[in-house]
Amino acid sequence: MKLDFEHINLYKCLIVIGSFVVYFIADGVSLSFGIFTRELIEHFNGNDREGLMFVTTGLLQAVPLFLSPLVCYLIEKYNCRIIAIIGSCLVALSFILTRFIVKNLISLNLVVGVMLSSGLAMIYIPAYLIISYYFDKKRALATGIAVSGSGLGLFVLSPVSEYLIAEYGWMDACFLFGAICSHTFISACLFRPLEKKNSEKENNQESPKRSLKEELGIIVSNKRFLLINFSYFVLSFVIIAPYNFLPSHIKHRRYHDPNSISISLIGLSTLIGQIAIGFVADFCKSYTWLIYSLSIIFSGFITCALPWLNNVYYVFVYSFLFGFATSVNYVLQSSLVIDSLGLANLTLAFGILQFVQGFSILLGSPLLGKLKDLTGDYDKSFFTSGLLMLISGFSLLIWPLLRNKNKNKSKYFI
Length: 414
Known about the structure:
20 helices, mainly alpha, about 80% helix
């Protein structure tokens, strides 16, 4: 049955709900993995090799981004729904296999770092791009609502992780997380391809198709898109540091953080920020770059100050402010790409941007972990992270000085 445009508004709501559930489960699980990391360090006797242990968390965040160009190509060739369904099966299976076959760091990296990460890529990207395909006027708000599932998932699943690990151990907790992740299959089924009107199909047939080489030429020659890539490369090098290091930092300082309140607060404030910033961005479409820049600059300042916070309640305040400020990283990503290149180039450009971020995360997580090994605490890692966030935020302030020679906007918006 083809999608009837008379009922498109109702189906838009279902698309947002489906994307929200994907981000609630998948991002909530992956971002709270820092809680599992503490148990894994003790299980594998890796207290003196935390840099190596954090290779796993780096892979968990980086591989989905590395695979983005391939996943975007598959979405173009097939559709969002098929790719997301395959991804949901891989994610659930990976957690279940972790329970039974992970015996050392190598098998952990293969199952969690490669298999689980590949599945996450195949559900993250369809869930994100499907919003841009269905929305124009309220794109930022719709994206904000959808990806706010990430914040809520982190807020809810962090204490759930703590409880399951304490009650059943990390192995059985992974098995139970596999059951939770299987629910993303239902959401993936909602990502029905958008049927075009006959007039749109005729126009598409009349328009000459560009080759992949021509599309890449347009994208990489766009100065604003290159600036976005630089800013996100620097930011991605350190963006997951608080998620991965904060629980261990609090434990190292001997603070009392029951049920990982610090991580849950990041999740809660991210949820609030994604909706609030998405709402504001829809009314300030010409200044999305400025909203992004100022938010990342603020997150850089407070992260630099984190090592000097000598009370757990100050750390909780930091967690809330950090989550709110960095929520722009999710909400405005597609809007910045579309502002630079137009909707017609979104899929390929988004894949390139995600790949750049993946390369940065893969470098950043183990290096920051190694810095902790060398210094004996996480202070230098957080201070370095804050400085790089400042560079990322300030770099985008030159956005108005750059002009686009090629901005191929799609004529057709739903």
